[in-house]
Amino acid sequence: MFGGKMKGNPGLSVGHVFSYESLVHAVAGAAGSVTAMTILYPLDTARLRLQVDEKIKSRSTPIILAKIIKEEGLSAVYRSWFSVISSLCCSNFVYFYTFNTLKNFWVKGQPSTNSKDLVMGFISGVVNVLVTTPLWVVNTRLKLQGAILGNDDIQQTDYKGILDAITQIVRKEGVLALWSSTFPSLLLVFNPAIQFMFYEGLKRQLMRGRTELRSVEVFIIGAIAKAVATTVTYPLQTVQSLLRFGQQRKGSENRILGSLRSVIYLLRQRVKRQGFLGLYKGLEAKLLQTVLTSALMFLIYEKIAGFIFRVMGVIPHVGR
């Protein structure tokens, strides 16, 4: 969110400064997302269970978490924490680095526009999906491993960790299985694209005539941006979760590889079995988790990036 030039370093090339700034943004974004997700991780566990387990009834998030703890123990709500955090860290690093690199080259220190933010967010999302989808496929399976599910056609696995899961998936299902949810994930790049468009737009409005936002303002616009993006794209997020875990369904002839036909099929099946509202099953838990996580992430991100740039002696561009 900061752009700028280095004081007293005229010998540094433009490309070097921009690359370094992109790295700072990437590290700050990754650190913010990891911290926020760690604090709110149980909410994501409830969301994923509601999306994948067809037989579990839609209930409030506290009730779902209480049920999981009662049946599976307290540690169940933090199942696969390291895998998720590792994936999230890599994902946000790639996204923030790509977004800010594009911004440095395209915007070049001038105020951006909503349309440019949307395009840059979309491109960043595509790069992120292609690079990190295998990690998300693995962490979805690890997170549900050992869970008590009501789906009779889901086969449990015995992965010992991230590397073991990758090895077993490649050996038993082929390397393409690691990208099994790529198609809906590519559609879902509109989620962060919409999120960043709203966040950047709201930030530009609040930054008029000012040099810095208050913490509460950053938290609020981060929450609003994520709430809009999540509500719009939630049905596809449900399909994405099903596809990531779907490779473990019994019967290789029924494998779902993430094609357009599979996406449409899963959407129709969810509506047929649970009605239109079934597409939004778990939305409460998702909104609670993702909105708070996003708002906290942006707050931490802005503080870390701002601190580092002040130490570096970078002059921020107002309205970026």
Gist of the model:
The chain is an all-alpha fold and 320 residues long.
Folded structure, characterized:
It is a single chain. By secondary structure, the chain is mainly α. Helix content is 69%, strand content 0%. Helix 1 crosses helix 2, helix 4 crosses helix 7 and helix 8 crosses helix 10. The radius of gyration is 20 Å and the shape is globular.
Map the helices and strands.
Layout: H1 14-52, H2 61-72, H3 81-106, H4 114-144, H5 162-173, H6 182-187, H7 190-206, H8 215-246, H9 260-274, H10 283-312
Helix pairs in contact: 1-2, 1-3, 1-10, 3-4, 4-7, 7-8, 8-10
Can you tag this structure with a few keywords?
320 residues; mainly alpha; 10 helices; disordered N terminus
Percent strand equals under 5%
Largest sheet: none
Low-confidence stretches: 1-14, 247-258
* Apparent shape: globular
Q: Write the H/E string, N to C.
A: HHHHHHHHHH
Structural class: mainly alpha
Count of helical segments? 10
The count of DSSP E runs of length 2 or more, i.e. the number of strands, is 0
Estimate the helix proportion, in percent: 55-70%
* Mean pLDDT level: 79
Distance between the termini: 6 Å
Radius of gyration: 20 Å
